[in-house]
Each structure stands twice: as structure tokens, then as C-alpha cells.
Amino acid sequence: MINFEELTFHLDLNKKIYVAYSGGPDSSALLYLLHENNINNFEAIHINHSLSKNASQWQLHCEQVCEGLKVKLHVESIEIKPEGDGLESAARKARYDIFSKYLNFNEQILLGHHSNDVAETFLLRLFRGTGVDGLDGLAVKRKVGEGYLVRPLIKFSKDQILNYLKINNIKYINDESNFELEQDRNYIRNTIIPAIENRWNKASSRIAKTSGFIKDRNSSYEYLFNIKFQSLIKNKIEVKELKKLDEVFIIDILRMSFKNLGIAMPSKKIIEEIIKTFIKSNPGPKSEVSWTRADNDQPGGHICYRDKCIVISKK
């Protein structure tokens, strides 16, 4: 059963709410749950990616459902141009750009991600060699543009969502691309996780819990680390002060400085280059390191040497 109080715990019901409505099972459950609980101040956004031959039918389905529920629907059509990390990342960036366009101050866009999605993301990042930060899963609530992106179903499982849809006889769309195993996430969802759960029942929910534990531990560590190294976590840092510290602390000071500035985290290779250029060598006016994020979801970074300090800025 999906508890309404848990569903709305992270929402501000006095502010405008949008549901990112694809017509799939997760966003359909979200749409109907808000409607049946008389949340009046919400609208839906459907993004037609124009990638499937069924895209126009999916749009029509969403229009008919929202008309029946008397929910205002905004339809956006986009053309995806894959760059860097490929189609999935390009589509995600395009969606988030649209979300930012709609959100005014403190308004909210709701996504239908659930605990199985957290498990998939955990495994995907694990296999790609992410750091500890990357294993803390999907954020329940985070800033997007002037408003917030919220995942109210994050504590509920896929089975709970499908059961809700079945009990209430709610029709939804099955996107055939979710079964294309060429995509890493689909391979994890359709091949790896079923194999794991065949051996360890409810493994997805346990992985999601572990991801939550990591998130809590990361938050505690960052809080204490910021207190200890507050004077160094900034955009201009004296090199001689950094050289007094162990490398592991230098890396985390840089990482938290990037995070505070809204800069994309560099790869391990770039971090090693930064350490070599500014810490293990004698930097000069021409010393610099730059990096970008392949999907352009965050600004890249640039570090140069000025006045005996490393200076961090967005690229």
C-alpha cells in the first residue's frame, strides 16, 4: 500500500506542483495518487521525445487521461541530439532543461522514481567505477532551476506501484525501449537484477537501503569535514597550506570546493593531474587544468595558479 503521508512528506502542498507524466506505470501512479487525494495545485508535463514510432500515441494517451481527470497538461516536443555519454544522457539533459523552464521560485516537479530505480543506479555507478559519493543513490529532493525536483515514490517498490495500478484498473504505457539490452541500465534492470533476486529475494530493496546508509554517512562526513577544513574549502586556496596535508584530505577539499561552486566532479585521472600539477610540482603562471562533464549536465571546471594560490572557476 502506498501511504499518502509518506508520499507527500517532502512536498510543499502550498506551492505549485508539476508531475513529469510519460504515461508509464510510475508517473501514472503518481498522477492518480495526487488526483485521488485531492491535491488541487498540480499540473502535468508530457515530453514527447520523438524517438519511438509510438510517441504520438503515447502523447494522445496522456492527453486523454489528463482530460478525464481534469488535470492541466503541458506538452513539449524535443529533438534529441546525442553527445558525449549518448542518447540517454542527452534526453535527460533536455528534460531537465524543460523542467527548469517551468519552475518558478520553490515550485516542484515530481518524478516517478522508486526503490528499484535506486538499486539500478547503485549498480550502474558501481560497475562504472564511481566514488563513494556516487553510491548514495538518487536524491529525494534537489534544486532544479528556481524550484525543486522531488521523487515522492523513492521509498516504494516497483511491485507496490504495479499493485496499486492493478487494484485501481489504471491503464498505462509500456515503452518498448525499456527492454533494449544495449543500454546499460536496461541490461541491469532486465538481466542482472532478476538473476540476483532469483538467489536473494528482495535484493533491490536491500541495495536501496544500503544506498541510503551511504547517503547518511556521506552527509555526516561532509558536515564534519567542512567544520575541520572550512578555511580551505573555497575557490582560492593557498598551495602551501594544501601541501601540509595528506593527499586524501587534499582531494576531498578540492571535491567539496567543486561541489560548493556547482562544478562537475572531475574524473580520477583529472584529480591525479591536478595533484601532480599543483601539489607535487612547483606551479607557475602557466599551470592550469580544465575538465568538462560529457553530458553537460553541470558546468566544467578550470584551475589555474595565481598569487601562490590555486584558483577554481567554472569553465
Automatic annotation (TrEMBL):
Record EC number: 6.3.4.19
Predominant localisation class: cytoplasm
Compartment(s): Cytoplasm
One BP annotation, GO: tRNA modification
Classification via Pfam families: ATP_bind_3
Domain tRNA(Ile)-lysidine/2-thiocytidine synthase N-terminal intervals: 16-190
Keywords of the record: ATP-binding, Cytoplasm, Ligase, Nucleotide-binding, tRNA processing
Gene Ontology molecular-function annotations: ATP binding; tRNA(Ile)-lysidine synthase activity
Gene Ontology annotations for the cellular component aspect, listed alphabetically: cytoplasm
Residues binding ATP, per UniProt: S22, G23, G24, P25, D26, S27
Reactions catalysed according to its record: cytidine(34) in tRNA(Ile2) + L-lysine + ATP = lysidine(34) in tRNA(Ile2) + AMP + diphosphate + H(+)
Entry's free-text remark on domains: The N-terminal region contains the highly conserved SGGXDS motif, predicted to be a P-loop motif involved in ATP binding.
Function, in words: Ligates lysine onto the cytidine present at position 34 of the AUA codon-specific tRNA(Ile) that contains the anticodon CAU, in an ATP-dependent manner. Cytidine is converted to lysidine, thus changing the amino acid specificity of the tRNA from methionine to isoleucine.
Xref: PANTHER family: TRNA(ILE)-LYSIDINE SYNTHASE-RELATED
Family the entry assigns: Belongs to the tRNA(Ile)-lysidine synthase family.
The protein's name in its UniProt record: tRNA(Ile)-lysidine synthase
Record lineage: Bacteria, Pseudomonadati, Pseudomonadota, Gammaproteobacteria, SAR86 cluster
Recorded name of the encoding gene: tilS
